[in-house]
Amino acid sequence: MSQPVLEETRNLSLSADEVLKLRADFPVLRQQVYGKPLVYLDNAATTQKPQVVIDRITDYYSHENGTVRRGVYKLSEQSTLAFDESRRKVARLLNAPSAAEVIFTRGTTEAINLVASSYGRAFIGAGDEIIVSAIEHHANIVPWQQLCLEKGAILKVIPVNDDGELIQDAYEALLSERTRLVAIGHVSNALGTINPVKAMIEKAHAVGAVVLVDGAQSTPHMQVDVQELDCDFFAFSGHKLYGPTGIGVLYGKMKQLEAMPPYQCGGDMIHSVSFEKTVFAKPPAKFEAGTPAIAEVIALGSAIDYLQAIGLGRIGAYEHELLQYATERISEIPEVRLIGTANEKAGILSFTIKGAHPHDIGTILDREGIAVRAGHHCAQPVMERFHVPATARASFSFYNTREDVDALIRAIHVVIQLFS
Question: Would you call 265 a catalytic residue per the annotation?
């Protein structure tokens, strides 16, 4: 396995040779699909796992498996130390003021639902307003929609222009003294648009609203600083960050977490229990009822170590170069329509091909060894806005290469020939 070098010792971007060395860390990329080398371009859905993460899970179950925080025996102590260190790694990744502000969840979806259920039910009432954007993942729409139905609150939507950029003048017009919460994605999973969340947070705070940022698509591709953003809540998923499935993170400002009631109740989230009264533990334990996903949390820490050794700034710079190359290549094909052409984008290309349904595109590309996503990407309002039933979506990682892009372009021409 290659040994990444710390970011400060290198130039900003990754070289082609470095990318090839890093690809060797991912065993799944060595295989063939239908007799052709696998080109994995569905990284917005989930990323592949480096051997170090796979090994960490195996090592934990082989040598350390014991419940955390509850045992005085050696295995439990080892597990607890590794578990707590992963929480500190997440805090450093996000530049959170305290590891106590890091809550482990099953993923971004559960993190958002935690805030909607806990903060929302406690602090949002009839006539209050919640703002989301027109390009959100369903996980950042439906919980707020249901909360509004329950509480009699009002859901407002920031419109998006033809390039896939949120219309900031319209956003400012939606903000009012009744705005209680703004929930926005850092990066659109369907379009790749990077939203100006820092400026949007500042405007929301000016009217007294709190802000949740869905960072599922940003955390793996850029350096996130929750203190600089000044967001109240920030959520991301481990499996999109080259870590295991079933683990995610909610960062919350301590003043918000302390004021919120528990999301779930059970073991390990209490200070004391009697039949007369229960006293809850302080955050983060207050929001982590039951036995946690111990192996997944520990392996997430290994994924963070791996990425930080490469450097998220270098990863983002390389992926931006790859996106530019892919955009240039695909824009040369007249039969292809790009959906989402924002000036600020992450490594996502959503597209349609004249005469071909996106599901057919995905199937044909698969036969050519190309793995892309085809569908509405859990963003049906986006599809409606751009008048398409679905799109094919290629999404990039630092382990992708220009040769992967070239293979995608060749496969697109196969689709065009079949439907011409």
Answer: no
Reported confidence tier of residue 400, pLDDT bands at 50, 70, 90: very high
pLDDT digits (tens, 9 = 90+) for 179-207: 999 999 999 999 999 999 999 999 999 99
Q: Could you tell me if 153 and 171 are in contact, meaning their C-beta atoms sit under 8 angstroms apart?
A: no
**H/E stretch holding 280:** strand 278-280
CA distance 142 to 136: 10
Residue with the two structure tokens 């009217």: 207
Q: What is the pLDDT of residue 5?
A: 41
Give the span between the Cα atoms of 66 and 93, in whole angstroms. Answer: 26
pLDDT value at position 72?
A: 85
Neighbours of 344 (CB within 10 A): 11
What is the distance between the alpha carbons of residues 172 and 13, in angstroms, rounded to a whole number?
36
Helices 294-310 and 74-94, axial angle in degrees (round to 10):
40
CA nearest neighbour of 290 among 268, 263, 262: 268
Tokens of 296: 């997944």
Phi and psi at 206, nearest 5°, equal -65, -25
Q: Which domains does the chain have, with CATH numbers?
A: 7-49+311-415 (3.90.1150.10), 55-308 (3.40.640.10)
Identity at 151, one-letter amino acid code: K
- Measured at the CA of 253, the angle between CA 251 and CA 256, to 5 degrees, comes to 115
Q: CA-to-CA distance for 65 and 294, rounded, in angstroms?
A: 9
Q: With CA atoms as reference, report the closest residue to 383 among 183, 167, 134.
A: 134
Residue 235 corresponds to which amino acid?
Answer: A
**How is residue 7 annotated by DSSP?**
G
Per the listing, tokens 């209490």 go with 270
Joined together, the tokens standing for residue 207 give: 């009217």
